[in-house]
From TrEMBL:
Annotated InterPro entries: PAP2/HPO, PAP2/HPO_sf
Lineage, broadest ranks: Bacteria, Bacillati, Actinomycetota, Actinomycetes, Micrococcales
Top-rank lineage group of the source organism: Bacteria
UniProt-listed SUPFAM superfamilies: Acid phosphatase/Vanadium-dependent haloperoxidase (SSF48317)
One Pfam assignment: PAP2
Gene3D superfamilies recorded: Phosphatidic acid phosphatase type 2/haloperoxidase
Name of the featured protein: Phosphatidic acid phosphatase
Organism encoding this protein: Subtercola boreus
Length: 309
């Protein structure tokens, strides 16, 4: 069975739209005007609704179903794309709140000499591994997730996916993911103002902005994660999905470790980048799931209205 056949054969189910518990009929999602079925909003419902056998529009928990009901109300007033943007804005507020919470956690572990106790020993160990050629490789690699490299990767990907899929969704998700990562980094640095490791222990070029959290690490988790997610949606083979996830995780981990190796961040900064990045990525993916859910409702409502006498 192809993904198109599977997408057409599964009804939208989140446990809230159908008050009688009946399984709703699938919306006909044939392409219009010769447009390929994998493009545009209708193509999103065919191609992006499932990851393997998992239906992303099926919500299993009461909290999830309640969130869907709120999103559907917003959709009735604003439409699917605007609802996605509003959901992301709300998620960003939550993410910034998480950054503020991270400040409290940072203070706690620093005062108790908990995780922060690993900072200096790990930096000392990293210094023993350095060599001119290894330093040059690590510097070039870490720049991929920097303020120049990461925007290039993000913009290039959103252009390719947006044009190929004829959809604003990849553009909105990647911009939101990257923009949220930037705002969380700025908020964390302003709240903490932590000093980076001594320049004598760092590999040039030196960096002078506050250290906590690691913006490179946060960017790597969020941007690589959302790109991998968008690509996974169109992959039928389990092996392909596993490879994409593994590549994103490996990239995020090694970017973080490169920051410690180069002496540009303490390990605590990198750990915060991994945690905050994963939290924000989860919120962005949840927003996309809500978008798919309300889009499916929107398409089904149009189909019902069109078939009414």
């Amino acid at each position: 069975m192809t993904r198109n056949e599977r997408g057409a054969g599964h009804g939208h189910r989140h446990g809230s739209s159908n008050a009688h518990g009946d399984q709703p009929r699938a919306t006909p999602l044939e392409s219009r005007g010769g447009q390929p079925s994998e493009q545009g909003p209708r193509g999103e419902l065919r191609e992006d609704r499932h990851i393997g056998s998992t239906d992303l529009t099926h919500w299993y928990t009461p909290l999830g179903r309640q969130t869907v009901r709120l999103a559907e109300r917003a959709n009735d007033r604003l439409g699917p794309n605007a609802t996605l943007i509003v959901t992301l804005v709300i998620g960003l507020i939550i993410a910034i709140a998480l950054s503020a919470a991270a400040v409290q956690v940072y203070d706690a572990v620093t005062d108790a000499d908990g995780v922060a106790g690993f900072d200096q020993p790990l930096l000392n160990f990293a210094i023993t591994l350095r060599s001119p050629w290894f330093d040059a490789i690590a510097t070039g690699y870490t720049d991929i997730a920097g303020p120049i490299g990461m925007p290039i990767v993000a913009v290039g990907t959103l252009l390719v996916l947006g044009i190929h899929r004829r959809s604003w969704t990849p553009v909105i998700l990647i911009v939101a993911a990257g923009g949220g990562s930037l705002l969380m980094t700025i908020a964390g640095k302003d709240f903490i103002g932590r000093v980076r490791p001594p320049l004598a222990d760092a590999v040039p070029p030196y960096e002078y902005s506050p250290s906590f959290p690691s913006g490179h690490t946060l960017n790597a988790v969020v941007v690589a994660g959302i790109i991998a997610y968008l690509l996974i949606l169109r992959q039928e083979r389990l092996r392909s999905r596993v490879l994409l996830i593994s590549a994103a995780v490996l990239f995020s981990l090694t970017i973080g470790l490169s920051r410690v190796f180069l002496g540009h961040h303490w390990f605590t900064d990198v750990l915060a980048g991994w945690i905050l990045g994963a939290a924000w990525l989860a919120l962005v993916i949840t927003a996309h799931r809500l978008y798919l859910t309300v889009r499916a409702d929107h398409e089904r409502a149009k189909a019902v209205a069109g078939s009414a006498p």
